[in-house]
Amino acid sequence: MTNIYHEILQSKAENKKLLAILLDPDKIEMNSLQTLIEKINQSPATHIFIGGSHVEVNIIDELIIRLKQKITLPIVLFPGNPSQISKEADAILFLTLLSGRNPDYLIEHQVNAVPILKKTNLEVISTGYILIESGTQTAVERVSKTDPLDRKNIEYAVQTAQAGEYIGNKLMYLEAGSGAKQSVPLEMIKKTADNLKIPLIVGGGIRSKTEILVAHIAGADLVVIGTAFENDPNFFNS
Ligand code: 1GP
Predict the structure, then answer these.
(1) Is the CB of 53 within 6 Å of ligand 1?
(2) Neighbours of 146 (CB within 10 A)
(3) Where are the domains of the chain?
(4) Can you tell me which atom of ligand 1 is nearest the CA of 228?
């Protein structure tokens, strides 16, 4: 089994910032996968995250098998529900939607995922997932039927993240939602990072290399970029 979490901890200890490219298998054109792979290999990405709201597992399997032929980066599942677990990946973010109060996303899906995970060698990484209000309703809100946290209430977001750390989450993910109008406020990133010992992931609505840098400087250990790279595979070259 891989030791991706250990490597993330090591990077944090060395203040080496990480970057994940999020691929949504629903949006990938298999015909142009070769070009996409080249762009990923030329990018500064350290991880590949795979996830989406409505993806079928057989598409995920095929995508990962093809990525692994040409890419050596760790491939981490970022699933919307247990039907998106692929044994072909290296690890899975085992998510708990801490910002919501929907028991399905707090424990039901996690229980249902266990028999599927037992048939894989995936490294399971317990991850607190906190959705932050970002201007419009996002897919996570719609699918999970939960409200995001108020983007102005920094203290409550920090408190939520700390509760997740006390519960035993190994990573914390501050999420504005895919394609969000507004990304997670920098002050929220900073205060959350200052109050956590575990590594902090930040994503949603990040559209430029400068925004990645600024999120890293604010305290994100790993930044996730999805839509901006999807829309422009030359994102890191321009
Ligand atoms: C979504 O945080 C990720 O779950 C990435 O968001 O697609 O807006 O980059 P974007």
Answers:
(1) no
(2) 18
(3) 4-229
(4) 9
